[in-house]
Design a protein that fits this description.
The structure holds three protein chains of three kinds. Chain B is α/β, with parallel strands linked by helices. Helix content of chain B is 36%, strand content 17%. Chain B is built from eleven helices and 15 strands. Chain C has helices at 2-17, 23-48, 57-74, 78-99, 105-125, 127-130, 155-178, 180-190, 192-197, 202-228, 239-251, 258-276, 280-294, 299-306, and strands at residues 136-137, 142-143, 150-151, 230-231. In chain C, a hairpin with a 6-residue loop joins β2 (142-143) and β3 (150-151). The chains are: A mainly alpha, B alpha/beta, C mainly alpha. Chains in contact: A-B, A-C, B-C.
Amino acid sequence: MDLGPHLFLALLEGLVGAFVLALTALGLSLVFGVMRIVNVAHGTFFMLGAVVTWYVSTLTGSFLVALLAAPLAVGAVAILADRLVLRPIGYEPESTIVATIGLLYILEQVVLMTYGPYARPVAAPIYFRVDFPWFGYSGYKLVVAAVAGVLLVLAWLALWRTTLGLHLRATQQDREMAQAFAVPVERVYTLAFGLGGGLTALAGALIVPVQQAHYLMGLDALLMSFVVVILGGLGSLRGTVVAALVVGLSDGAVSVLFSPTLAKIVATLLVGLVLAVRGRGLFGEESA
Amino acid sequence: MSHNGDGAVGLSRRRFLTAGAAVALGAGLPGPRVPRADAQAGSGPLRLGFQVHRTGIGAVYGRWYERTTTAAVKLINEKGGIAGRPVEIVAEDDGTDPKRGAEVVEKLATQHKVDLIFGTLFSHVVIGSAPRAGQLKIPYLVVSEGYHVASGRLNRYVFQPGITDVRAQVTAVAPWILKNLGKKATLIFPDYAFGHDHRDFFSRVATAQGGTIRALVPIPPTETSFTKYFPRVPADTEVLYHVMVGPGVLTFVKEMGEHFAARRPQIFGFVDSLEGVDLASPGLDFLEGTYFWEAFPRYAGAGTPAHVRTYRERVGVNDVGASVNDPRDVSTFSHMFGCWETLHVIKAAVEKSGYKKPGPADYKALIETLEGFQSFAEGIEHPQGPKRFVGRLHQVFGQQVISRVQKRRLEVVHRTAVEDSMYPPEADYTKQPL
Amino acid sequence: MRVLGLHLAVLGLLGVLQLVLPPFHHGMVARIMVLAAYAIGYNLLLGYTGLMSLGHATFFAAGMYGAGLTIHHWGFGVAGAFLAGLVAALAASAVVGVITLRTAGPAFLIVTMMLAQAFYLATLYFNELTMGEQGFVLSGLRVGFGGRGVDLTEPVVKYNVALGLLAVCLLGSLAFVRSPAGRVLVALRENEERTQLLGYNTYRLRLVAVLASGLTSGVAGVTYTLLFSYVGSTFAGVLYSIYPLLWTLLGGSGTTLGPLVGTLLMTYAVDVASGVTDAYLVVVGVVLVGAILWAPAGVVGGIRARWARWLP
């Protein structure tokens, strides 16, 4: 294929990937930003969203019902985890890492035992091909990108226009001060963790007709979410979104220029070097 | 939490810690659940260690390997066992990880004291585990499809008597592809050993027979989206040869369909891409009219021989290759027979060699017997088809099948002869000391 | 003094244990000791310098490949390969150290992860040389002590080489953290700015820390490959960067014995659980959660807080 169309295709793919990544990472950004903890089970919530979607859509025959059920179910699991494990250890950063690794093992094994080791597909609710002159493209992928975009806007609105959003932002900026202003910080934490899980489960649900639901699919989501959250700058949701776009599009462009594995090496090094130079990320605050 | 001053505690820390260490280790000390005395005397059950991928990326295969093994052992025991001894399987999960694989070999050999070990599939686990088997001097029969056994890079204790290797598969199908599908080929493969074997062997055979490799597209292993790679397929490609494996495979096929649609070249894949996957899945319509290599046809039909029907019944697979208990549970039909046939080879070898118990003399006899095998006849013991065994390579050779996707089923269009797959041997394990 | 005595006692116990351990556990403990050395290297950076890395697999694998490639392709002997592995680990540490000089906290985490990921992909990319994911086998490894030398894969040799490595790393880390240099690192961990204000060149300190940590992890990698005869990309992957983090945190970061305890605990948790049930990961997960609920600072950290404040 000529360079022009090839680049167009790669950028299109990159854009779709970027939107999904932004939605996946948003939940982590929230958790990391508000609670300052590393949730190693974040990718597992993504995977659970996909798996629950498969179950619900197979049972009810409706993808849309699944799309509603998945984030609710996974959000509930997240809240449970917060109450039973994270709160008792006081959200201590290092202990949280071990605890969430334990959570990861438990959830993955449970899924393996119930759902199985298979990669199962879910039929897309809308299926059509967009025919460009040089190649065909999945219409559903474009829909996913659009929906993710809408959800990101909704999330932004919720954060900046609702009381809950205010509480979240306040707790993120300064926990003690927020407490002094009667923000129920403990509850905000739980809610943040639940929302974080739910948002990423939603991303998993949206993407499952494109990829398949597989019990190990969370690792990649976890790693990429981390990269994007930190590259964007801790505590900045805008940064997360921008970083996702940067990563997605540059990934696409680089893949055109280099052979696949080499492209991945280059893309990986690029991210690392950006962060090495600008440690706080694109939009992060200067550490006091 | 206690806040006693240190002096209040009577137990010395040193003793506490060492006691703690002892407890930790003691918790792991073996409490044998099976009496081993009998086995060591050469009577009592024959204990076969089964290294299985119960978790990790190989889990789909591991599940079916285990079912097939259980079925084979049941049949063997119904017929009187091996050398009159009942067969017992001791299974351990290796998590599809080479480090854990080596630990499992150790555990099976030194703790469970099994007679021999079999069952590993993924190449990197085989290569990580085989050295340990060689060091522990215990026969290690893999069901892997990798060329590593026949390449001579492992050791004399390693055999692959139940399943053919990639080099043989490619050698057998490449001439048919060039003759029937096209001479200009583009290869899409995962960028690791399994994919490289396909790349290297197909290129070799193809160019020797007048074909050309138009392009090579290696895909990084963890890739979940493939659309951006399809533009690398040159427009004048006559046949697209793909061997993508892993959970992303359905995505690969769907995206391939979206990208090429009606303008596609001829497409030849390996059923490894679809093991455990239902051909009637949404998004796989694109595969209609494309070709696949199979080792053992997944779909049964009017022409299916009786012994194959018996095999399918015993293992619990229906006519479309799915579990009789759950039609959504699709089998890994072109691989799992390897366990069945390996167990029957073990039976033949143990009975012929007079093997009684673990030990250098008995193992030597067993290994030399295995190396002496020349062929295995088709039948209930070898339902996949007739086999030739090359002793010096420790590798078995068999027929390969080419099928076409027709109305969401795989229909066999060609079966190669065993000889078509036999490449010149490059190793000789029989010359190695034991 | 009792700290040194305790460490020597632990090592002595491990030494004596080899006489009573059944063969399987003999091999397991040998393996654990080498991996514990890896975790000790990791802890130098995490527990004592306060830098959490997600890229230590690079150092472990650099040692592994340094030794493995020189033996496999150029016929080096064991001693030469060992040195080659050390040099490779040192080089990798230097590169990582320089690139991450000005990063801290989350950025350090991601940069180390990205560098490790790039290294992993490179081992796949250059698979002509490295055999990629599949890897390759080393055979006939002998250490010459006059005459034919000693076979490295003999259980007794394996155990004692591993023990020797652990001893060097454990006692080395003990000496290091109690030395002036070590104390400055702890100061660095507690408050980088203040340490700078006190006149220390924190950049040089961090580099030294990364070098020490990387070298230790690399030596563990070299030893692992020489004892267990396998080299492959799996060991450069992100999971092998997560393991030492897990082992160290479970055992107790910031304690010298923590990494050993963590490695021992995790390895046996997996082994014991898998003997009891197919769903062993659930059991392991529960053990992890339970352990951390009981001792948020890790097992040894918890012991230190409750009963033995003098533990380093």
